[in-house]
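Table S2 (continued). Query chain:
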Amino acid sequence: MFKEFNAHPKGIKTTDCMVRAISTATRTDYLEARRELNRKKKELGFSSYKDTQFLYKYLRGYPRLIFKPVKGEPRIKGSDFTELHPKGTYILKMAGHITACIDGVILDTWDCSYRSVYTAWEISTIF
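Corresponding output:
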């Protein structure tokens, strides 16, 4: 399931999916989430927090679900994920996108539920 939600304080639709997903899943102020990501990227030696490897290092320590491809079968889609995980808070690494899923609902500025899910991190309420 999908519900339109934009964590950006000015409601701007921009290419900030990492910040929106982290802010939404952790229930953190958008600007605070962006400051934290910028601080962490420097600390971890990345030039951008949009780097996929940064995401993996940033979320290290959180329970991680990996959805490996199975030959001859389609990958799990965001819509499938919401049905399989109706409870809990997750950050989803999808094909070319990152989003938040809370209690079986993808919260984002656009419906990305058709995209393949590669990895999901379960985010506890205490981030």
